[in-house]
Amino acid sequence: MEHPYLLQPLVWTARGTYYDGEGRSFPLTGQSRLLRDAHRWQLEGKVSVAAPQSPKFWNKYTISQAEDPSTLRWTSHNPALGTLAGTFTLVGNCILSIYNSPDGIYSGTETLWLQADGSYYNAGGSLCRGQRMSSWTAVLRAAAQ
Fold it and tell me: What is the pLDDT of residues 90-112, one digit of tens each?
C-alpha cells in the first residue's frame, strides 16, 4: 500500500487533542510538509497546543530507506528532547513509528491509520524514563495544493 503521508511531497494539517503528563487535555493544531527529491528526504512538522504554557513542538526528520522495504529509518532534532532516532514501518493501512533518544531517556511510539477519505488518524505517546510525558490524538488531512 502506498502511503501519501511519507511518500508524496504534500503539506498536511492536523487537529486534535494533546494530553500532558497529568492527563489534562488541550486542543492541538499542526502542520507537516514532506520534502523529497534526488538529494533529500525530509519531513518537517510543528504542533501548537492551546494550553496555559502554550507548548510548541517542531521536528525536522531526515528519512532513509532501511534494508526491509517496508521500513524507513529516521533521525530528528527536537528542541526540547534533543536528537531522536526511530523507524517508520508500513503495515497495511498503518504507519507505525517507534523512537528513542541515544541516551535512552526519551522514547515513544506513534501510529497513523490511513482512512477511506485519504486522511490519517494519529495517536501517540512520549515517555521520559518510562513515564508518560505526553500523548495525543489527531486527524491529519492533506492541504489543498
Answer: 999 999 999 999 999 999 999 99
Average pLDDT of the residues of the chain: 91
**Pairwise CA distance, residues 80 & 103, whole Å:** 14
Query: HSE of 109 in the Cβ direction (CA atoms, 13 Å)?
Result: 5
DSSP annotation of 22 reads T
pTM of the full structure? 0.90
Q: Is residue 34 within 8 Å of residue 9, measured between CB atoms?
A: yes
Longest dimension (CA), the chain: 44
Residue with cell 485519504: 118
Pairing state between β 94-100 and 106-114: antiparallel
- Quickly tell me which residue has 533529500 as its cell: 40
Instruction: Kindly list the structural domains of the chain, giving each domain's residue range(s) and its CATH number in brackets, ordered by start.
Output: 4-142 (2.40.128.20)
Amino acid at 91: V
145 pLDDT more than 70 = no
